Amino acid sequence: MLQLLIAHLAAALAAPALVRWLGRRAFLLLAAVPAGAAVWAITATNAVLDGREPTVSISWVPALGLDLVFRVDTLSWLLVLMVGGIGSAVLIYSTRYFSARSSDLGRFAAVFVGFAGAMLGLVTSENLIQLYVFWELTTIFSYLLIGHYSERVTSRRAAMKAILVTTLGGLAMLAGIVLLGHEAGTYELGEILTAPPTGAVTSTAIALILVGAVSKSALIPFHFWLPAAMAAPTPVSAYLHAAAMVKAGVYLVGRLAPGFSTLPVWQAIIGVLALITIVHGGFRALRQSDLKLILAFSTVSQLGMLVLLVGSPFKAGALAGLALLGAHALFKACLFLVVGIVDAATGTRDLNLLSGIGRRMPVTATIGALGVASMIGVAPFAGYVAKEAALEAIIDDQAALAPFGWPILVVFALGSALTIAYGLRFWWGAFATKRNVTASLEVVRPPLLLVAPPMAMALAGIATALLPGLGETLLRPHARTYPLGEPGHLAMWSGFSPAFQVTLAAFAIGIAVFLARHRLSGWRIPWPEQWDGDRVYRNTLRRVDQTAAATTAVVQRGSLPFYLGILFLVVVVGALPGLLTAGVEANLWLGTDVIVIAASIAIVAATVLAVRARRRMKAVILAGITGYSTALVFLVYGAPDLALTQVLVETVTLVVFVLVLRRLPIYFSDRPLVASRWLRLSVAAVFGLLVAGLALLVPQARIHEPDSADLPTTAEEFGGGKNVVNVILVDTRAWDTLGEISVLLAAATGVASLIFLRHRSTERPRPGSFEEISGKLGASEPDPVARLRRPRHDEAPTRRASWLVAGVTLAPHRRSVILEVAVRFLYHTMIVVAVFLLVSGHNAPGGGFVAGLVVGIAITARYLAGGRYELSAAAPLQPAFLLGSGLFLAAGTGLASMIFGGEVLESAIVRWTMPVFGEIKLVTSLIFDIGVFLVVIGLMLDILRSLGAELDHQGDVLDEDGEPVRQALEPAKTIVRRES
Amino acid sequence: MSVLGPDLFLVIAAGVLIAGGAFLVLERSLTRVAVGLILIGNGVNILFLITGGPRGGAPIVDVTPEEAMADPLPQAMILTAIVITLALTAFLVAMAHRSWQLHRHDEVQDDLEDRRIARLAAIETAQERGDIGIVTLDEEAAGVRDETADIVEEHWLAEEDVR
Amino acid sequence: MTWLVPLPVVIPLAGAGLAVALGRRSQLQRIVSVVSLTSILAASLGLLFTVNDSPLVVQVADWPAPIGISLVADRLSALMLVISSAVTFCVLLFALAQDLALGDPDSPVAIFHPTYLVLTAGVSISFLAGDLFNLYVGFEVLLGASYVLITLGGTRARIRAGTIYVVMAIASSIVFLLAVALIYSATGTVNMAQLAGRLQEIDPGIKLTLQVLLLAAFAVKAAIFPLSAWLPDSYPTAPAPVTAVFAGLLTKVGIYGMLRTQTLLFGEGPADTVLMWAALATMIIGILGAVAQTDLKRLLSFTLVSHIGLMVFGIALSSEAGLAGAIFYVLHHITVQTSLFLVAGLIERREGTTSLNRLGGLARSAPLLAALFLVPAFNLSGIPPLSGFLGKLGLLQAGVEAATPLAYVLVGGSILTSLLTLYVFAKAWNKAFWQPPIDPTQGTRLPAGMLGTAAALVVLGLALTFAAGPLFDYATEAARDMYARTPYIEAILGSTP
Questions:
Q1: CA C282, CA C292: separation in Å to the nearest integer?
Q2: Residue in chain B lying closest to C134 (CA)
Q3: Which of these, C446, C444, C457, C308, lies nearest to C373 by C-alpha position?
């Protein structure tokens, strides 16, 4: 069995190649695969009958109760036979049906065979989830097959319809399966059916599963996808949408009925939907003029009958249902193939254009007649046997069915009457000679391979009917498993029974209707327009699209302030509940420390002014003031390292701003909306209040000693340093520091990448790919970081002349002698200080960061004094090199310590004595700190190079050209392409 | 452990910093946003320090007696945070400059695509946009023709016509 | 085998340093990044197979917990590391192929490679962090790198998108830092194991507040409604490989943060209900957003947001099954979302656009590309038997197990979401691949390297399906460890000398 599935998979994968190689003949080869399945089923017949059901089981995802278990009982056996037999027949038919030139035959063949495999898996699945897996696969394949002629909007639309409707059902079914599995404690069908769970949840589960079945089997209200699916090539219609896939729903119903058909919810759903579908389908079929559509609606109607019978709790009904299942597969597929022949031979399927075809195509007409006979239930055809058995069953179980017995009987009879009417009309429409139709279509003799498959099916229809006993023995085992009633029988002639009388009546009505077809043609079914499934589907879809657009328009403002505002509000609203229910209260006290008070006042004042500032520079400087005041607070609160760092960082930040702001306009542009101003103000205020509240309340919740309690002692013994903070930074939490300097590296690279973009207007970047930068950077500036490293040819022409080259290179009006002199004295002092800070950092305030920043500021000073040539003179080393080597050093020490058998970043204390200095104690973590030192310098240098020197240069370009910088603007082409 | 909470002055200072920063961040000018982020950063750092533990002396052995030391751990973390903020500020400012280069202003504009969707919300473009038009089945059926073999030329045993 | 633990961080950082220092020598840079990423992948795989019920712990610089920083590799971390390094590796190859496709091997990659390495390092730091502040640092590292990557080239669109992205991320980081500061102030520790104990002992109201603050911070990174709107505005404009790795990975780091902190630090509580609703809103509003799109990349970004909701659903259930489902779904989503974005990149490269209204006929003109799109698209739509279906199934089962009304609502929500996802992709397929093309001219040929790497990722997604059995078991065990909490805590504090 597994081999069969694998064979299908392999065949599907091989199909495109085969078709490319053999052309249409490949279909013959592929037909062997489903045929194999059918043959296998036949050989397995006896085993299935005496209960030695072939079973295979493989474990897949035990955690989800999802194992692959295949089992073939009589029901599965019947469907395997149908799926395999008809599948191969249709494939053979396709070898001649399609033109050798027709497009995508390979893909078609692959998907078709794949579908056959999925169907095979579906009907043999023992595990419900596994069944769902194959269920969805059939949906997917049918989507691809319906959309075969993908350039036609009809096909695409129909494919979308089919996949959405059936998947909707499928997903409902999945939910139902999960519920059922949870109730039953297993997904194995056998176990579930032997002890079916009961209760509200189970009923819900069953209802959901039935939704799946009903949508797949195209019952009202989901029926509308099936007629639309006729956009698929006729072989597909014959196989998927008549014989195989639509039967999946019937199969599932028949599979679960023995366990659940007595549930009220089950009977309500099955009964109501089936009955409505029977009538609706019948009437619609009567009124179509396209042969394929007639068959489509007849399929809808008859699926109703099948579900009604197979879904009934009665043994007899079930038997009749199974018989009808087989019969329907045979005659419906046969009729579709016949339509295909007529269509291919005449070029139309419209029964108003067809005339006299029967005389020109006698063989095809005969096959059609046989098929129709079986459909409308004329003896001696399978259809007849099944329908008789069905009527027998309904009449025999009247008592049990009451009070619904009569309505069911009437509707069923009406259904068969309609079948007779549209069946006759179908044959008449396809083959009869019509007086009023004069269109003489050129008709040709169909090749044998086109005629043989439907012929075979028609004959099979007779054969099975001639030995009903065999059919009964084959189907009885499953019918027996149904809960209620007496086992029924399949017979060709069971006397002049009430059932037979009903049949006669049905024929009478049916023929009458057929004869009166012209008068009835104007007559419509009383069916409210807005209930029309198709219309509902369209409206729903449109409504979904509109809701989507509307909600997205509301949520997706594309405005940064809006998003940030939401974030702040979410934080406030989210934090409040906990804060209000907190069992701690703040104790408010005002410190008396003058410095703190002063600092706080300074901060508040500066902040308020900064918020109100309309000049960029002013805002920045005020922000700086808050920073310096913060440093003051740090100092007072016993954090000298913090204070030092804060001061330096604040300075650097100022430098950065100054460097950039000199290019930006002096004033902020005003926000147009004043109203929003208040909104933003209140959001900000609330946020600030909340944070203040947190600051007051949260500390009160502490009841534990902080981890850092005994850090100081360990810091000295273990970290070999007196400055605990520094020990933490370079040793205890060096891991954080490592990450932090990599942020510095990233940011530095980013700054460079944003500034060094030049001569781009000539390039035409390929959209959406990172080599864009290469395009953007242009040939002369290929590598942003590289050009940091390589002194530009025009740079530092007179390095040797004097170390403060500004005298030579800087325009006089830009020079400031005092500054230059001051810098001349300060520079080296600062460098020395920095080195001292670096080395002593472990025991006194200082360390890599501080030292690096000091150096950075020293260089900044020289740059400010001497301009960009001075910069390259001051710092011969390249920022990229510093950054890179710094990070490499820091990370390297981590690796090294591991190689030396310690933990990552573990430090060691090395002591040795030197003649002059006496004993020297070196903590290896100093190396790490040097790495940090280098990275910080690298960052500073990088900032000066890009935001400083490079902007000077671009500025110069601007001055010399006397027109605004063009290099930043994108090529028009790419704009068009991206905004489209 | 300290029942003594943080100094109200500093709490207010931090609160004001954060509120002011938040207000600036809600602006459109990138420079203002950057300044706002700096303010918020300072506020959070102060808050980190004053809520991290009781006030104390510099955590340097031999300078401050161990019991009088301030908790060094928050200090280390704040230091890390400060430096990260510096790096990101630099990047943000560079971005502001780039934005100015491109647009001659440093304002954050709204997303065009989102505006388009917003417009689209008003109009019903659903059905024009393709796969759910209204056509009757018969019209559809008329349009559906398979690429069938024109059986005239070929006998049923005819050789495959090679493409 | 504890020596393996720090490698996924140290190696890429050293590599990044080298790459920057090497600067111009782009050939060397490429070698450096390929070597580092390969070794990360190897190390992660090593961890995956060595980690058992007791997580591997490294005390950085040999400082005993809780003073020093603990690196912890438990099953969850190992899984995340493996999948992330595998994906980053594939994307790197894709980028290299794209880069070489230019013709000149010396085209500058000086920015991309080091930054990309820093990004991977940041991701690894976050996955290994056994220390809350270190988790913050990890986020900063990967975000810092991501800022650079998303603004590569500094074009108009990217600066605009980058601004939204960068400012949003910085804001969320500030919230994160605030949360860490307050957590330290309330408990006196940032060591996860310590916190796991202490947070249960402090005042519940304060605990809830702290939890919400952390959640808000993570919600921005993971793009959870109502903090998700920034994502679709920022991701699509970045270069294809960048978008791919961001979409696949970065949001999941946020999810990882939630997984870790919710289970280990806070456990079940009132926040779960809020998360449930957030998850529902994220799913539905996200997918509705996707329905409204006509550009493939934006459409994908919205599906990304929507499916984040599914993972949050699993987390919010705070049951073993829920966590297991969420973990498995994360693995699936990282792989599939990344490959979809790579394919979108390929389409853009071939046709010069990703607008569904201008594309067409690709199914016929580029069958391989069509297959590469269709498989992950169906996978994301939860079509069985693909991994997306299995993850969804796990979540559904967990939801039904919980059997609370709200859980049922979310089960319904996720069902609806997958239906709409299918609708979205069917629409995209109908337009881009089936509807007749506007101009039937052949697009530019795609370099085999790019196709190959994209295909490799698609195959990886399929491999998840085939290996689903053991993977799901592993995920379940990971969930069990997290739910039990004790293994993690003991591994850290027990290892104190």
A1: 15
A2: B77
A3: C457
Instruction: Specify the amino acid at residue A494.
Output: S
The count of CB pairs under 8 A between chains B and C is 95
Which residues from chain C sit within 8 angstroms of residue B113, using beta carbons? 233, 295, 298
With contact defined as beta carbons under 8 Å apart, do C421 and C303 qualify?
yes
Report yes or no: B140 and A290 within 8 Å, Cβ to Cβ.
no
Joined together, the tokens standing for residue A17 give 């190649």
Check B113 against C430: CB less than 8 A apart. Answer: no
Alpha-carbon distance C325 to C251, whole Å? 17
Residue A203 per-residue DSSP state? H
Question: Which residue of B37, B44, B114 is in closest CB contact with C181?
Answer: B44
Q: Give the integer Cα–Cα distance in Å for A172 and A216.
A: 12
* Neighbors of chain A by Cβ distance (3+ pairs < 8 Å): B, C
Model confidence pLDDT, tens digit, residues A105-138:
889 999 999 999 999 999 999 999 999 999 999 9
Element (H, E) at C70: strand C70-73
Please list, residue by residue across A68-95, b when 16 or more beta carbons sit within 10 angstroms of its beta carbon and e when fewer do: bbbbbbbbbbbbbbbbbbbbbbbbbbbb
Question: Lowest-pLDDT range, A570-579, A664-673, A824-833?
Answer: A664-673
R_g of chain A computed on alpha carbons: 43
The contacts of residue A256 (CB under 8 Å, 6+ apart) are: A193, A206, A209
Pairwise pLDDT comparison (A877 vs C474), residue with the higher score: C474
Distance CA A747, CA B92 (A): 9
CA distances from residue C208 to A91, A958, C131, C223 in whole angstroms, order as listed: 65, 57, 20, 21
Closest chain C residue to the Cα of B22, Cα to Cα: C171
- Of C36, C165, C206, which to mutate for an interface test with A (greatest number of A Cβ within 10 Å)? C206
Alpha-helical segments (H) within A875-924: 879-899
Per residue in B8-64, pLDDT (tens digit) is 889 999 999 999 999 999 988 888 899 999 999 999 999 999 888 888 888 888 888
Q: At what angle do helices C387-402 and A153-184 cross, to 10 degrees?
A: 40
| Mean pLDDT score, A436-442 | 66
CA triplet C103, C104, C105: central angle to 5 degrees? 110
Best CA proximity match to C434, nearest among A137, A170, A107: A107
DSSP string of A722-786, one letter each residue: SBHHHHIIIIITHHHHHHHHHHHHHHHHHHHHHH---S-TT--PPTTSTTHHHHHHTTTS--HHH
Residue A633: name the closest of C281, C284, B10, C98 by CA.
Answer: B10
Proportion of chain B in helix, strand, coil states, percent, rounded to 5: 60, 5, 40
CA distance A396 to A316: 9
Contact indicator for A166, A223 with CB cutoff of 8 Å:
no
**Percentage of the residues of chain A whose pLDDT score is greater than 90:** 39
What pLDDT is recorded for position A351? 86
Residue whose C-alpha is closest to residue B58's, from A712, A847, A840: A712
Q: Say how far apart CA C100 and CA C107 lie, in whole Å.
A: 8
Instruction: Write out chain A residues lying below 8 Å of B80, CB-based.
Output: 729, 733, 736-737, 740
* Least CB–CB distance from C159: residue in B47, B99, B113: B99
| Alpha carbons A234 and A337: distance in angstroms, whole number | 7
pTM for the model: 0.90
- Nearest CB to A729: which of B16, B76, B141? B76
Tell me whether C436 touches chain B (CB under 8 Å). no
pLDDT at A778 over 50: no
Residues A412-435: pLDDT tens digits?
A: 999 999 999 999 999 998 898 887
The 10 Å CB-count burial string (b at 16+, else e) for B78-100 is bbbbbbbbbbbbbbbbbbbbbbb
Amino acid at the residue A732: T
